[in-house]
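Supplementary notes (optional reading)

For those who missed the lab, this is the record we used. Protein: Pentatricopeptide repeat-containing protein, mitochondrial. Length: 151 residues.
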Amino acid sequence: MICGLAVHGHAKEALDRFWKLEKEQIVPNDITFVGVLSACCHAGLLSVGRKIFHLMKRVYGIEPKIEHYGCMVDLLGRGGELLEAEELIKGMAWKADVVILGALLGSCKNHGNIEIAERVVKEILVLEPHNHGFMLCCPTCMQRQGGGRMF
């Protein structure tokens, strides 16, 4: 139910259901947290998302999966917390995939952060050296590197 509400843009209702579960001492699972974090992301609720991410780990003992990290990177990125998003990626137990890195790269474009974008692009090139489609997302990075040269 929470995931469905989140996907369809009903963040407030999704969060209300989550807080109701918590009040009734019903233990949420990892899928519930994906839905709630997604709702926070789409509604721009950065502080609530941070709180829920920490609740998930500290109160419920649920280790974040790549989907949780993806939601948090997107949430932090949309909120302009690009350095925090980059640090979160670095702290993951496994290597970030192109989807998570792409979310951060898109946020770098939206917020004009060329320095982090350059680092992200380098990581993407390591993962997928022949996929240059993501470079369209960051033309300012290429301009900074000298008229469109690859970096």
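If you only remember one thing from this example: Confidence is low (pLDDT under 50) at residues 145-151.
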